[in-house]
Write a structure and sequence with these properties.
The protein has about 300 residues and is mainly alpha-helical. The protein has two domains: about 10-250, no CATH class; about 265-303, no CATH class. The protein is built from twelve helices and two strands. Strands 1-2 form a two-stranded antiparallel ribbon. The longest helix is centred in the N-terminal third of the chain and has 46 residues, at about 60-105.
């Protein structure tokens, strides 16, 4: 089954429908990387519980309880940030890989996991930098009045596809993501809410299933949770292309007068063309991104 970039702005239902179709058509290509990360991540969380200092008996002395509390706090101060850091870096890499594979599928290119991994690792500093900046602003917004945190989350929801597809830097991706979702705040929020509901229902169901297996529930949870995690980066990739198409349609649409007169004649500057350095397609001279491949256009005029 072939997939193509959207030629128009897609509604939320169609974005999710196409995202699921792409996921199911290349299931193992998307699922296995998340599985490879999911089980070790669940294992680290399980190991944390086993390595915690044992809780003293209820009738233990105050000295014993105090010593246990100090050692437990010290252990958590070291272990929790380490586990969070490792998990965050791994999830960032896997999400970037998923966007790359989904983008290649929509661009009609051959998808290769190892190539996607190498490409994402090269973009990792930008992905982590943008993640730190957006995460800090989201937390700050939530602490202030909660609503600003949601707004910031909406603004920066496309930073991963912007960095992966357009090869933008960390700070550039923040403003670029904001521009792409402009005038689509509620739609972006709605898409994120729907995906969040899918995740919430799936996690509750999978956690209940995993609890049946007792001591190996962390393995079952890792296997099951990995089933739903590719949905977000795939859907965000479709949403990026949908917003990119919306932006291009607005850019290329000729202005018309309120009286119904003929559109104004484009200026000589707008009629000049430049070539994309990546795919060779022609673009308007004032275009910032290639209409064909979506990558950043360098200002070199055609002959």
């Amino acid at each position: 089954m072939g997939f193509e970039k959207p030629l128009r702005e897609l509604p939320i239902g169609e974005i999710l429908g196409q995202a699921f179709n792409l996921y199911f058509s290349k299931f193992f290509l998307f699922y296995l990387p998340f599985l490879a990360v999911g089980i070790p991540s669940s294992g680290m969380s399980e190991a944390l519980l086993y390595l915690m200092p044992a809780m003293p008996a209820p009738d233990a002395s105050e000295e014993v309880i105090f010593s246990w509390a100090v050692s437990s706090i010290g252990f958590l101060v070291v272990a929790l940030p380490l586990i969070f850091l490792v998990g965050w870096i791994l999830s960032t890499i896997i999400s970037g890989m998923t966007v790359k594979v989904a983008s290649d599928s929509l661009e009609g290119k051959e998808t290769d996991v190892s190539e996607a991994l190498n490409y994402t690792v090269k973009r990792l500093p930008s992905l982590l930098g943008a993640g730190i900046a957006s995460g800090f602003l989201i937390i700050l917004g939530v602490i202030c009045l909660f609503v600003p945190g949601i707004i910031v989350m909406i603004m920066f929801s496309l930073i991963t596809p912007v960095i992966i597809i357009e090869r933008s830097g960390a700070l550039e991706s923040l403003s670029r993501s904001k521009n792409l979702v402009s005038r689509r705040w509620l739609k972006t929020f709605g898409l994120l809410i729907v995906i969040g509901i899918i995740f919430g229902v799936a996690y509750l169901l999978f956690d209940a299933i995993g609890s049946i297996f007792g001591p190996i529930d962390w393995i079952i949870n890792g296997i099951l949770f990995a089933l739903v995690e590719p949905i977000l980066p795939i859907a965000v990739t479709f949403y990026y292309y949908s917003m990119f198409t919306k932006e291009n349609m607005a850019f290329t649409q000729s202005p018309s007068s309120p009286t119904g007169a003929e559109p104004a004649t484009p200026s000589l500057q707008n009629l000049q063309k430049i070539y994309c350095a990546y795919c060779g397609a022609e673009n308007f001279v004032d275009a910032n991104f290639c209409e064909n491949c979506g990558k950043k256009v360098f200002k070199t005029k055609s002959e």
